[in-house]
Automatic annotation (TrEMBL), chains A, B:
<dbReference type="InterPro" id="IPR011991">
    <property type="entry name" value="ArsR-like_HTH"/>
</dbReference>
<protein>
    <submittedName>
        <fullName>ArsR/SmtB family transcription factor</fullName>
    </submittedName>
</protein>
<keyword id="KW-0805">Transcription regulation</keyword>
<feature type="domain" description="HTH arsR-type">
    <location>
        <begin position="1"/>
        <end position="97"/>
    </location>
</feature>
<dbReference type="InterPro" id="IPR036388">
    <property type="entry name" value="WH-like_DNA-bd_sf"/>
</dbReference>
<dbReference type="InterPro" id="IPR036390">
    <property type="entry name" value="WH_DNA-bd_sf"/>
</dbReference>
<dbReference type="Pfam" id="PF12840">
    <property type="entry name" value="HTH_20"/>
</dbReference>
<keyword id="KW-0238">DNA-binding</keyword>
<keyword id="KW-0804">Transcription</keyword>
<dbReference type="InterPro" id="IPR051011">
    <property type="entry name" value="Metal_resp_trans_reg"/>
</dbReference>
<dbReference type="InterPro" id="IPR001845">
    <property type="entry name" value="HTH_ArsR_DNA-bd_dom"/>
</dbReference>
DNA sequence: CCATTATTTCAATGCTTCCTGAATTGTCGC
DNA sequence: GCGACAATTCAGGAAGCATTGAAATAATGG
């Protein structure tokens, strides 16, 4: 998944706001089941309409998607988009300074890298 | 280097703007030698005063630092801060979804991970 | 000291963002 | 269909951001 610089800016911008970063964290921890808008509003202590605006920003950046379940609307993270965003960041990072990435690898070695992508090459 | 969520927001916000992301890329590619403000203004085609404002944002977020060299002011990236920013992002990412990190590892395997950190464990 | 170059600071403008309250749309159980 | 719940949309105002032109600060060379 390759993306333009404008995409990266939009994704960074979507996360560059306390409430939205909080939403992102909550959705990441929730995993594929996702979280409803109301539940997010309650747990983050934000007005429902305010939160709705933030969720729109996250969705337009492609970082999240929504699905309806009864009366609720469930939000989930679009993992591939998150991945390509970090990818873009890391590639720019490594461009002139490979050693900057070493701590990243360490983060993955502490239980993050070998959990079921299905790719075994 | 541990940082607060507010730090992460400030760092993401600093990069969430086309000109500033361009500056960041240029400084990353330049490496430790850095680039002068005027050179950045010329190569990115931005007015010097406008660029100065953007450089201030990057510095206040901790992502860059400045040093004077004659009449010029040279800007360089603060690699440890960049590293901890990506670290924060990746940790939130991995929290509920370890497989999202796999492509990151691949990015490092393509020539990014084993370049002179001095750590050989 | 003076002119020149490099960069920043200042003040003002237009634009965007964030939040709030009220109204609207969509869904469920009866 | 009706009342209740869940979420979004709309219109508003306050605050912040990006850009510009003009002025100020800093350093170099003669």
């Amino acid at each position: 998944m390759v993306q333009s610089e404008a995409d990266t800016v939009a994704q960074l911008n979507a996360l560059a706001q306390p409430t939205r970063l909080g939403v992102f964290k909550a959705l990441m921890q929730a995993g594929p089941d996702g979280v409803s808008a109301g539940e997010l509003a309650r747990s983050l202590d934000v007005a429902p309409n305010t939160l709705s605006a933030h969720l729109t920003v996250l969705c337009r950046a492609g970082l999240t998607s929504q699905r309806r379940d009864g009366r609720s609307i469930i939000y989930t993270v679009e993992i591939p988009v998150v991945t390509s965003m970090i990818d873009a960041l890391v590639n720019d990072c490594c461009a002139g300074h490979p050693e900057a990435c070493a701590p990243l690898r360490r983060a993955q070695e502490t239980g993050c890298g070998d959990a079921g992508t299905g790719r075994a090459s």
